[in-house]
Amino acid sequence: MIVRARAPLRLGLAGGGTDVAPYCDLHGGCVMNATINRYAHATVEDAADGALVLAALDRDVQLRCAPEALQPDSGPLQLLAGAYLRICREYLGGKRPPLRISTWSDAPPGSGLGSSSTLVVALVTALAEFFNLALGEYEIARLAYEIERVDLGLAGGKQDQYAAAFGGFNFMEFQAGERVIVNPLRMKEWVVAELEASLLLYFTGVSRESAKIIDEQARNAASGASRSVDAMHQLKLEAVQMKEHLLRGDLRAFANTLQQGWVAKKQMASSISNPMIDALESLAQAHGARATKVSGAGGGGFMMFVCDPADRIRLSKVLAAQGGNLLDFHFNPGGAVAWRVA
Q1: 151 is annotated as an active-site residue
Q2: Domain limits at 23?
């Protein structure tokens, strides 16, 4: 039997960082995000020879071993190993069946589109389908979060897993005790179309290790550093405001809030921005950009620019000349999905 799954990547629009402990445990977090038609993919199939094979196809990395010999610390394959071991432990009574598990992503690690967490959601979704596990979106997202943050000890927040599991435009609330509430937005079609026409997604060509940025942010929140905590309070408020702007279709207010959020986000940790990002922001604003934001933890990856659709071509040409890549995309209304091939 062969099972495939895919989960959509996301754009963090507002509130990113307030979903990271200890801030969300102390103050509660709010995030506004949306998924796009770029995905993380997973395939699970029977292994006839009794071996376990893990393969990250886009990174050209493979591990072959006896199922009982697999360890969580599997280097570049740790996400695959973590998902397999957690499902075996929690749902199969510790039994480790021989499988071939392979993955790939439409975005590189460190892109700022939540690619790592989305990959774990795709893995959990594929394994749940393979083993006939009746898991809903909240359960899949919770499992993916615990695999990354608890089982593997990787730093990060919660929004990416829930965005990938649910899909669409969502306003998310993160509360103490791991309580998460996902509020889907009923977006008008013309608002989504106008937003797609107004947004440019530009890959800087620089992938960054988000864990280091998130660790600094978490330390600032835990120590009560006023500048960082006040910035997070502001980001949480702006997530609420952005939800209202999108529901009303006020895209000029959307752009203003996105820009304010970026200014506040840069106060959370010193490595969120850098001279390259600052230079791209200034250049874009000189050529029609109304707002700028780095998607994800910051430091590199994808940058978002909001402009009048009439300025889109001009701004695109200027950004393309800087050596990065523009990504065509559409918003994706659906979440993670799995299907059987044979």
Answers
A1: no
A2: 2-186+332-340
